[in-house]
Design brief:
The chain has 180 residues and is mainly α. Helix 2 packs antiparallel against helix 3 and helix 2 packs parallel to helix 4. The longest helix is centred in the last third of the chain and has 20 residues. The protein is elongated and about 60 Å long.
């Protein structure tokens, strides 16, 4: 997911003309940049809020230049990055990357939190046999134990996505399952 978030900034190197000590910000406030980043994610969850807070904090602490802030504010989706990182100095970019990596190390990927949510719904589904619901609950407990032990949470995304897909297929008989 970190590469996904860093994709918001796009590939490239820092602007060679970017100074290590940019002038105080006079353009868009950093809080607006962070809030915008939060709302690029759907649904807005704890992960999105953590990423937005990192953008706000790094923007403020590192005095991001107005062109970088404007570039991020012009970004309409995380799937279409604007290559905003070229408007940051190398040091500013490294600080943001470190903050985002720290989030990735502690936050579960959205697929894992979604898997947990769907399993809670499945546990209440009387259309499924009790033995199947118990088995799914056991799988969740096992998965959560693995999640806690996993240092780099980014590696869990594909595993959780596969488990989520399997649970959704198994729970197709449940009322409202199509909305899960």
């Amino acid at each position: 997911m970190c590469s996904f978030v860093l994709g918001l900034l796009g590939p490239g190197c820092g602007d060679p003309g970017a100074s290590k000590s940019p002038p105080p910000p006079v353009g868009p406030p950093c809080a607006q940049v962070g809030d915008h980043v939060i709302h690029l994610f759907a649904p807005v969850d704890d992960y999105a809020r953590s990423v937005g807070a990192a953008f706000t904090a790094r923007c403020t602490a590192d005095a991001w230049p107005d062109p970088a802030k404007a570039c991020i504010l012009a970004t309409t989706t995380v799937e279409t990055p604007q290559n905003c990182n070229v408007k940051l100095s190398d040091e500013q970019r490294q600080q943001l990357e470190a903050a985002l990596t720290a989030i990735e190390m502690r936050e579960l990927p959205p697929a894992c939190t979604r898997y947990e949510t769907v399993l809670a719904l499945v546990a209440k589904c009387e259309a499924l046999p009790a033995a199947m619901r118990a088995e799914l609950a056991t799988r969740l407990a096992t998965a959560k134990a693995t999640w806690t032990e996993q240092t780099d949470k980014r590696e869990l995304g594909p595993v959780c996505q596969n488990a989520l897909t399997a649970v959704k297929q198994a729970a197709a008989a449940c009322p409202g399952a199509d909305a899960w």
